């Protein structure tokens, strides 16, 4: 809970200070931002070849969720920031680190100096409820 004294009448400067403080204090789901954190964690814990032999370092020129480039690149994602590349980094972490979710959470806590950062149960539940269907069960209309 924020403890903010708002002067009356409120000035433009006071309003801007309030909005800045609210923005800085508002929690949000980092979603795709976590791709960068996962990659850095992998780079800190693993030898470079464990990562770069499975994912590229080139721009894709396509939307982050496109799988078209995977066909051209024979299944190797162009970079760790497109969804396919982030999944590879996640697989690497899951294969090589004992408790990857906790390691990643603890790493983000350390970076942010916020010891109570955690996974969002509501966001996770929504992701599971709205996950993409396998290609063979998708209906195109």
Structure description:
The protein is an all-alpha fold and 141 residues long. It contains seven helices and no strands. The N and C termini lie far apart (47 Å). The model is unreliable at 133-141 (pLDDT under 50).
Q: Structural class, judged by helices and strands?
A: mainly alpha
Order of helices and strands: HHHHHHH
Number of helices, where a helix is a run of at least 4 consecutive DSSP H or I residues: 7
- Uncertain segments: 133-141
Please state the average pLDDT score: 81
**Main pleated-sheet profile:** none
Terminal CA distance: 47 Å
Portion of residues in beta strands equals under 5%
Number of strands: 0
Radius of gyration: 20 Å
Shape type: elongated
- Helix coverage percent: 40-55%
Quick summary:
The chain is mostly helical. It has helices at residues 12-25, 34-45, 48-52, 68-72, 83-96, 100-112, 121-129.
Structure characteristics:
7 helices, mainly alpha, 141 residues
Which helices and strands occur, and which strands form pairs?
Blueprint: H1 12-25, H2 34-45, H3 48-52, H4 68-72, H5 83-96, H6 100-112, H7 121-129
Helix pairs in contact: 2-5
């Amino acid at each position: 809970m924020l403890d903010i004294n708002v002067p009356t009448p409120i000035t433009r400067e006071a309003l801007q200070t309030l909005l800045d403080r609210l923005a800085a204090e508002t929690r949000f789901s980092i979603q795709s931002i976590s791709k960068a954190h996962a990659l850095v964690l992998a780079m800190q814990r693993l030898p470079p070849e464990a990562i770069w032999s499975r994912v590229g370092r080139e721009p894709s020129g396509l939307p982050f969720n496109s799988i078209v480039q995977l066909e051209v690149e024979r299944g190797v994602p162009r970079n760790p920031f497109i969804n396919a590349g982030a999944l590879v980094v996640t697989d690497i972490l899951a294969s090589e680190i004992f408790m990857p979710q906790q390691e990643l959470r603890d790493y983000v806590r350390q970076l942010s100096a916020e010891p109570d950062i955690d996974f969002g149960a509501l966001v996770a539940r929504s992701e599971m409820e709205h996950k993409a269907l396998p290609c063979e069960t998708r209906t195109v209309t």
